[in-house]
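Sample entry follows:

_____
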Amino acid sequence: MRILLTGANGYIGMRLLPQLLEQGHEVVCAVRNRNRFTSMDELKRKVEIVELDFLKDTSAPDKIKDIDVAYYLIHSMTASTKDFDKKEAEAAKNFNRMMAETSVNQVIYLSGIINEEKLSKHLKSRKAVEEILYKGDFNVTVLRAAIIVGSGSSSFEIIRDLCEKLPVMITPKWVKTRSQPIAIRNIIQYLTGVIGNQKCYNESFDVGGPDILTYQEMMEQYAEVRRLKIWIIGVPFMSPKLSSYWLYFVTSTSYRLAQNLVDSMSVEVITRDTRLKEILDIELIPYKEAIRLAFYKIEQNEVLSSWKDSLSSGRFRKELNKYVQIPKYGCLQDKKSIKVEDPEEALERVWAIGGLTGWYYGNWLWKVRGYIDKLFGGVGLRRGRTHPNKINAGDSLDFWRVLLADKEERRLLLFAEMKVPGEAWLEFKIDDKNVLHQNATFRPKGLLGRAYWYAMYPFHYFIFEGMINRIAKGIKKT
């Protein structure tokens, strides 16, 4: 079948794509920016890519007019705490208008479990999108899932952060809320299993794993799998706002996402029926086994996607292309260059920068800067990086966003997502003469921006000097 995959750059989309191709489907990937399509090169050659923004576009491009199935994997929960529901509704309406110009027969939507009258804003929005999609001129299949457990998923990474970093936790009352976590492998099985299945047309199905657990039990079982000792002390007086700050400072989540998650965590999400499990004959993976499978992927460096690479995980909201050209005027710069004896090894060190590798020089200063950034509402260093030595445009890299990663040009360009009074770029490039150029550019915003640059200059001098030398010479990080 010819399939349209919206949200192809997202956590689910990147996991789903290889399976669709393996099953022999012809796939058109819809992304807002083709330069951010970060799937593996061997997969890129097998798909068609179309740029679509469902908040703006309403007409169907020719590439998607002849399709059989479409996946609707679009959501905006991390974009704002106020109007993400309006954005999700508008995107769904535009999607319906666009599908009216195509030959699509079935639309598959991944939603959230809805089994309480009093829903969170997040679940209300998912329900509203369902209702909009059902008005379209096509057959709809809705899969309603709870927490998805897999390497790189937001829920898994938050539980991982909490358990790995806090042996003793003072927790809010929502840790007693029950949920039914499901392994990412089962989600992909469900998403592919309903393709063209007429029993699934115009139906909404709950999908969950075999275990019903409170959030506290999920953390305790995670700790058991990881052989960690944790103590969880629940308190009844922690407000939603305080809970959001607690998640924000302890985990790698953004504050916007933390607020929306806390709102949702007070609502039980338990499956009401098992019809789809019976129809598709799927063997459900227990929660502990899902954790083990996630860590197998992490240990093998096979994490295909992470929620942290979403643009909404940081403060950067605009089109990447607008920032690829570094401005020349009104900027302050720190330029350094050095001849490298082995350019290929130096390039590999550039490609491995950040995350667990660190920044080669003064890592403790980078960590301090990350803590300060987190304190003032920034992303800090906790996002790390998805892969230890592979980078694509659009990826998050600690408190930077990758704008350009071109190994043939031997150039890496980063844009700062930390809280700074201005805009900052960090560029690494090895030229034809095997000279490594390291350029830090800052476009200050007003007098405060200039004061910030000059106040940081002494630190920049030593950090940037040490960094370029160690990248060039391969000396161990400090």
Notes: The first helix runs from residue 11 to 22. The longest strand covers residues 435-444.
